[in-house]
Design brief:
CATH class: Mainly Alpha
Strand content: under 5%
Number of helices: 11
Shape: elongated
Order of helices and strands: HHHHHHHHHHH
Radius of gyration: 22 Å
Number of strands: 0
CATH topology: MetI-like fold
Helix content: over 70%
Largest sheet: none
Distance between the termini: 13 Å
CATH superfamily: MetI-like
Amino acid sequence: MTLILPGLLVMTWFALTASGAVKPYQFASPQAVWAEFGQLAASGALWVNLGASIERVAFGFAAALVLAVGLGALVGTSRLAERLIDPTLQAVRAVPSLAWVPLILLWLGIGETAKITLIAIGAFFPIYVSLASGIRNVDRKLIDVARVLGVRGPALALRVLVPAALPQLLIGARIGLTQAWLFLVAAELLASTKGLGFLLTEGQQISRTDEILVAVLLFALCGKLSETGMRRIERRLVAWTDTLPAS
């Protein structure tokens, strides 16, 4: 069932390009895209560019996760921290990804640090918002019981609030990882010489729609595999929750 819609899209794509309704310079055929994929794979360029993008996303997401868990736990457990920190973060959250590119270029140059920083910005906010919201919505009875047992301060956050908010945290992490792939395109506009974003811009510069579509399809595949992996982690870690089972 999952493959029905993708199959229909590929068939439509094939029909449009084979009939001449869409010109090759506008949209490459499935055969041309597959041939370009094979050529890039055989030359090794595909694996170099794919590996560079995966590495950037992994480092950016990891940095965002650590920072978001720290700040999300702080804001979720402290009204003072919420008043001091949250309004500023919500304002920063509204800034479009491309608006960060000139500033990051000025601050960090065009190296890997700049790219990873931009990806981390994209991944940070879904995790932070989900965790802070999840902690605020923790059942009050759990907190009262923990305090009766003498659990307070940082121990209360680590042993009660964060575990209780884990489902929300994992949802935020899944969305954040998807956001990391979205911000990767902007990150790889920072004078990249490798990566899927580099393949995308190179294809545009030399008017190679087959290369552009290879990059687009790899972005889609990587994003889907990341999302599927995070869903499996969610099911494993929060199997104890009383939720409606998937049909």
